[in-house]
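Standup notes
- DV: blocked on the single-chain target, sequence here:
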Amino acid sequence: MKRSQLTTLAIAAMVSIPALAFAQGQPKIDNMRSYDQDGINVFEAPKDNSTFDGLKYRFGFSFVQPFQMLSHKNSVSKIDSIKTGATYTKYDVLKLRDIGADFNNAVANMNIDVQMAEGVRLSLISYMSARHHQETWVKGGYIQFDKLPFLPFDIFDDLMNYTTIRVGHMEINYGDAHFRRSDNGNALYNPFIENYLLDAFSTEIGGEILVRHEGFLGLIGITNGEIKGDVTTPDYKAPTYYFKGGWDGKLDEDLRVRLTGSLYTTDKSANATLYDGDRGGSHYYYVMEAENILDKTANTKTSASATSQFTSGRINPGLDSKIFAWVINPYVEFMGLELFANYEVAKGTLKSDESASTVAATRALQLEEREWTQIGFDVVYRFGEAKNFWVGSRYNTVTGKPYGFTDDITVDRIAGSCGWFMTKSIMAKLEYVQQTYSDYPANSILNGGEFSGLMLEAVIGF
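- DV (later): unblocked, structure below
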């Protein structure tokens, strides 16, 4: 290990130890999913109201330090050139970047939660450092109502015994995979390094109502359908609706079963981001990215970067306008064994009719309705006195037609992981991953593509 790496780890330890000591004295915030091991396999935030005795707030942090040992390859090449003065320089534009074993930059989140009134909670999460952006910026914030203490009517008290209302710029509750994914620095919930190939995650502005009773749950949400607010181009936009229904409960002391179905629909959007809304980025760096990116207008060459190509290894279906998507998520927990599955179908178009002001051929491609199918299956076994060790395996496959392609492509991923919670707030995980790309055309850098190898992450969350 290099001296600079040892220095980095030492600094991280000096910062983490007092921070974790501070975390032990944090006040309890009602109806909140914990950021540490207690948040594992928690889906919607629990209803656990306590007596309100004044304004409370807590600061928490989530850190990830990755170490990557991946290699990649493809089976194509294509020579192109740019002109500098009177000289033409040739490059293989389908060549992959050289990658090796080393640390990637650490990423971090800051979590602020406030108990504002009885049954009223405020959440604000900021990315302090992310693969896509190194500067601090806000992921989103929302206010959650599990009671309505400002309304002096008993009927509302009765209704809120079963109801949770969230309003703000928030992570939408579509599907269950988003509860198990890595969100930039928050990677404690995820027993693997990365998320699913089609990463259904988006922060949108709106509200949702969740009703739960005796294990049954139902949810309806409405948002602007985009990752930010923008009053321009109103003709290109329509409201987005999403729904969830299911059951989550214990059949006996050791057996928990959950089954939910979700639906997301919007007629048109200027920039829908259901499958590319993660602004933090993939935890697989540079895989299947290009060494030579030519700008023939400016006659310049660049290489793929961690920030510009921040979704390495994921699949963006290019559904950024009209979307109709649904997903079924079964989950079974028996003692230490967990089974989680994701069957998802998404279809839609690249551009809305009003925004497709291009030539007829391109417009037809943009308005072509394309369909994608995703299957994911996780098996995880947790063991130890405090369930602080685990081993797991994942299979994930996606099939669909990218924009401009004539035929479907398929991407497959298998992963095996193991991990250890040293404390409730400190975790380490190791993963082996192999991902293959099939049926890509000869002019694609992903033709014959494959990457594989080991990933190691040290994670802190509180």
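- Follow-up: Residues 1-21 have pLDDT under 50 and may be disordered.
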